[in-house]
């Protein structure tokens, strides 16, 4: 475990991840034998954040968003796997987490109740030709081909309107998410870690279809202060034209499981994106999916 932790720390330091991002944060808990009562007792629903970034403050911010009363609602199809290395714990502790049937679908719904298979890795990851807040060609710069292409168009469209965006964090592998989560578990314990970090398999960043963006200056990257900026407003208004949605809209945290994340956009294709935007709904509502949290 220590080795894992050390490794994870190193990875994190290098990655600055937004764990929360969309579902990225909850944990694959390392502890195989959790004490029982937490199953329904403490689902932590909302973490916020993509912010896991490496800044310490991000964590506290996210953590504060935990909603005590919320309870994850198990679904009939829930699948609690029990393999030690995966999100089994997730299933066991955080109620029902079911594994999605078509992880490669452009419209796949991934959240705190719907997980990608442990082994899933998108087959068509590429490096979108857009600026990021870092220079390295590393994992978090990747996106699936169709999403990357749409992102390039979105960035170009923004520039025409005088809005200069930069990528902060896109794809994140299961292994990376696992390292991140385990590092937080080692630091704060599983229950607390789950309030601000996604269980491996449940982060939308693992789909290769989501990305956190910021202004080109990198300020407020995946942080609450991004809200209200001209970049955030532009995304709110125009992302759907390029097939992206603001995945965690304001006031929808009880449904998505995440607080408002104006920086986290998810590719779903233009038709669905426009409908979701026009109706002011979430991906969960679009699919009539069970709310992640209930109030
Ligand atoms: Zn994100």
From TrEMBL:
Residues 141-269 form the D-alanyl-D-alanine carboxypeptidase-like core domain. Pfam families: VanY. Gene3D superfamilies: 3.30.1380.10. Residues 45-90 have a biased composition (Low complexity). It comes from the Bacteria. Residues 25-93 are annotated as: Disordered. PANTHER family: D-ALANYL-D-ALANINE CARBOXYPEPTIDASE, PEPTIDOGLYCAN L-ALANYL-D-GLUTAMATE ENDOPEPTIDASE CWLK. This is M15 family metallopeptidase. It comes from Paenibacillus hexagrammi.
């Amino acid at each position: 475990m220590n080795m894992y932790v050390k490794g994870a720390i190193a990875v994190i330091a290098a990655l600055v991840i937004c764990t929360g991002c969309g579902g990225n944060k909850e944990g694959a808990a390392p502890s195989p034998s959790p004490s029982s009562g937490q199953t329904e007792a403490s689902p932590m629903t909302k973490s916020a954040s993509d912010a896991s970034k490496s800044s310490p403050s991000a964590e506290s911010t996210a953590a504060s968003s935990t909603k005590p009363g919320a309870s994850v609602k198990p679904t009939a199809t829930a699948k609690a796997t029990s393999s030690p290395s995966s999100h089994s714990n997730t299933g066991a502790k955080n109620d029902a987490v079911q594994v999605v049937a078509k992880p490669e679908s452009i419209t796949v719904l991934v959240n705190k109740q719907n997980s990608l298979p442990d082994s899933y890795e998108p087959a068509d990851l590429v490096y979108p030709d857009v600026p990021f807040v870092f220079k390295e060609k590393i994992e978090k710069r990747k996106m699936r081909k169709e999403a990357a292409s749409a992102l390039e168009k979105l960035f170009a469209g923004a520039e025409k309107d005088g809005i200069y965006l930069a990528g902060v964090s896109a794809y994140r592998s299961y292994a990376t998410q696992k390292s991140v989560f385990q590092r937080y578990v080692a630091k704060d314990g599983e229950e607390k870690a789950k309030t601000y970090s996604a269980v491996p398999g449940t982060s939308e960043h693992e789909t290769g279809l989501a990305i956190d963006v910021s202004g080109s200056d990198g300020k407020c990257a995946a942080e609450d202060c991004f809200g209200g900026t001209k970049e955030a407003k532009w995304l709110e208004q125009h992302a759907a034209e390029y097939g992206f949605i603001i995945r965690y809209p304001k006031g929808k945290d009880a449904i998505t499981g995440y607080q408002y994340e104006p920086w986290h956009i998810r590719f779903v294709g233009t038709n669905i994106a426009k409908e979701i935007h026009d109706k002011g709904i979430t991906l969960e509502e679009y699919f009539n999916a069970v709310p992640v949290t209930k109030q």
